[in-house]
Amino acid sequence: MSDPRKAVVLLSGGVDSTTVLAMAKRQGFAAHALSVRYGQRHETEIAAARRVAAALGAAAHVVSAIDLRVFGGSALTADLPVPKGRDPAAMAHEIPVTYVPARNTIFLSLALAWAEVLGAQDLFIGVNALDYSGYPDCRPEYIEAFQRMANLATKAAVEGHQQLTLHTPLIRMTKGEIIRAGLALGVDYALTWSCYDPTPQGVSCGRCDSCLLRRKGFAEIGQIDPILYQG
Predict the structure, then answer these.
(1) Among candidate residues 104, 126, 123, 106, the one with its CA nearest the CA of residue 13
(2) Is 73 helix (H, G, I), strand (E, B) or coil?
(3) Inter-axis angle of helices 209-220 and 175-184, to 10 degrees?
(4) Is this prediction's pTM over 0.85?
């Protein structure tokens, strides 16, 4: 039997990236999970990513560090308040202060570097163009542009050894559809983390964009979210 194809999967420890890791595994990839400690407000999501990678049997899990606090510009990397209780329509059409400048470009570049070292031709990212908080680097046109760039950017590609495919299996799914797909794959969402602004005790706020979208997704399919919320 031949060895499974290697893939690099960006893993934040949230609902979307966890589901994508499960999907990559189901497709038969040896999934190498990559998480990034980028100076975000808390370490909770890194702990969640470690739990998820172990539970889903990632072939490897690397946590890379880059401190985006040196630039700031986001409520996740600077001392700015996290928006709470936003209307879903505003989430879809306004780019919030929780947007981290160029974050997906940075993360995908790190994933691309690891993929070249591994000899992998597949990257997975859990971006979504339906239930998302208005982030420009979650749109299909951005993903298409990055894939074109990636295939011009590496020694392996130039020498004809690598033709990279950037997989976005969730991009046209609602949050409820994503959760339903993950449950069908056996994902335990109690291991995951979504909140941008947890309490000091590590309880999800329940009102930031990420919490609201998560709660909406579980409600949409009539399932109980297994994590605790402050309100």
Answers:
(1) 126
(2) coil
(3) 60
(4) yes
Domain map of the chain by residue range?
6-220
Give the Cα-Cα-Cα angle 25, 104, 79 (nearest 5 degrees): 120
Neighbours of 61 (CB within 10 A): 19
* Phi-psi region at 103: left, alpha or beta (left = phi > 0; alpha = psi -120 to 50): alpha
- Cα–Cα distance between 133 and 114 in angstroms, integer? 28
Encode the chain (231 residues) as per-residue pLDDT tens digits: 457 899 999 999 999 999 999 999 999 999 999 999 999 988 899 999 999 999 999 999 999 999 999 999 999 999 999 999 888 777 767 788 888 999 999 999 999 999 999 999 999 999 988 766 567 888 889 999 999 999 999 898 889 888 999 999 999 999 999 999 999 999 999 999 999 999 988 899 999 999 999 999 999 999 999 999 996
The residues with which 34 forms a beta bridge, in sequence order, are: 10, 62
Collect all residues with Cβ–Cβ distance below 8 Å to 206 and sequence separation of at least 6: 195, 212, 215, 229, 230, 231
Classify domain 6-220 at the CATH superfamily level: HUPs (3.40.50.620)
Amino acid sitting at position 27: Q
Distance CA 21, CA 52 (A): 9
Burial of 18 (0-12, 13-18, 19+ CB in 10 A): buried
Q: Read off the tokens for 59.
A: 């072939």
